[in-house]
């Protein structure tokens, strides 16, 4: 059985944004969603993690009971993951408190260990989000997601607001995470050269519709012009 099944999902605001989306995410699968700016990727991400409801259609998630824990999202703009008045210490303590019922003293060594895993250290703990850079915040957002241990992690363009060097570091970090086979990852990007580093299977969106889905090898056989342009851009980037 699939971890997540998306069935006939539509979303409209003033106009239709997503049109009849159907796909599955298997347990432990890393799947890419790709498409140009404005095609509806972030709208889909918000629907999948239940920030918004679809206008029509169903999301069947294996474990419906504990969805806020099981599905985590890392945002395009790192600051969106944070509350402006909450210190990093509290932000990283919360999942240990809520999900594992640890007190602050018990959680602290685990928090520090996790910070080192994402290339940070304990000096950030008493800072507020605005005192850190975008790359540092994105590392901390990843650390928090790792602490929660979701079954589905949605990464929405998580490197696109960062410098190239920081982007590469974050990609390395995520690759380590991908080796943890228990977590399914939905990796959203406009850049196929990035997506093909992680994902065997890719879904291509255009104007809110799925125009192609399959392995990277299958995409190479696609005659669709949009897919061919994505492949060309990936070749130039990679
Ligand atoms: N809350 C909203 N109300 C009205 N329109 C919206 C809303 N959110 C998104 N849209 C519209 O939906 C379309 C898709 O937006 P979305 O952010 O999902 O695209 P995207 O693929 O993530 O783009 P990008 O690559 O630039 O991040 C856009 O035309 C956008 O203006
Ligand atoms: Mg987006």
Automatic annotation (TrEMBL):
One GO molecular function term of this record is: ATP hydrolysis activity
Top-level taxon of origin? Bacteria
Keyword ATP-binding assigned to the entry: answer is yes
Which keywords fit this entry according to its UniProt record?
Answer: ATP-binding, Nucleotide-binding, Transport
Q: What biological-process GO terms show up in the record?
A: transmembrane transport
List each copy of the ABC transporter domain by range. 1-232
Protein name (database record): Dipeptide/oligopeptide/nickel ABC transporter ATP-binding protein
Which organism is this entry from? Faecalibacillus intestinalis
